[in-house]
Amino acid sequence: MHFLDIAKNRYSTKQYNPNEKLSEDIVQQLTQILRLSPSSINSQPWKFTFISDTKIKSALATVSYHNLEKIEQASHLVVFSVIDNVEKFENENLSQLPETATNFYNQRVKSLGEAGIKNWMQHQVYLSLGFFLAACASMGIDSTPMEGIQPDEYNKILKYDGYTALFAAVIGRRDVADFNQPTFKPKFRRPLEEVVESI
Ligand SMILES: Cc1cc2nc3c(=O)[nH]c(=O)nc-3n(C[C@H](O)[C@H](O)[C@H](O)COP(=O)(O)O)c2cc1C
Fold first, then answer.
1. Which residues form a coiled coil (predicted)?
2. How far apart are CA 29 and CA 9, in angstroms?
3. Contact at 8 Å (CB) between 149 and 67?
């Protein structure tokens, strides 16, 4: 299938079939795909946590606002986290990168200060979400990105140290009656000529 058709067909799934679990092979492929996500200067300031354990998934569902039911029903919950300590990033990630990368960081990022550096790191994790959603769609896996979570509660439940949860995604197989499928609810997007220009 052409990627344009994949883009037309993918959607944020609102109702999952709780009886359909993704195979271990599929999940392993997704872990490798996330590891291969691109990032500025190859900084990779992230951690991805795949959760299938029903007890932990349920605990996280209760601190995920309107996403509770999706998390309960879906096969896996994937939590996207970012390094929350600049010193840790510089010691563990930056130190392994080539000089051109450290030069870019020192000249263009470090001057932004702690909040700016953390913001820059978060951008990289968001990019991995786009990569992940596209990969899921190309593999015929249903998914839902979710900012509607309580990061502090996630951090406690997942016992994060040095990372903070940013957002999550659920993956699995849709309930065939899911109202949000493009066949039932056509996608809303702003007109092409408003969002794209050719010069
Ligand atoms: C970063 C991000 C956060 C989102 N958070 C949620 C969420 O918490 N719950 C939800 O049901 N959908 C969430 N969505 C889905 C969007 O509402 C959806 O992508 C948008 O309406 C476009 O619809 P489509 O994905 O079906 O094409 C989120 C999407 C993105 C990219």
1. none
2. 21
3. yes
Please name the amino acid found at residue 191.
P
CATH node for 3-195? 3.40.109.10
**Nearest Cα residue to atom 18 of ligand 1:** 12
pLDDT digits 0-9 by tens, 30-74: 999 999 999 999 999 999 999 999 999 999 999 999 999 999 999
Could you tell me the CA-to-CA distances from 51 to 158, 167, 190, 199 in Å, in that order? Answer: 10, 14, 35, 46
**Beta strands per DSSP E along the chain:** 46-51, 76-83, 142-146, 163-172
Nearest CA owner, ligand 1 atom 21: 12
Q: Give the binding-site residues of ligand 1, using a 6 Å CB cut-off.
A: 11-12, 67, 144-148, 167, 187
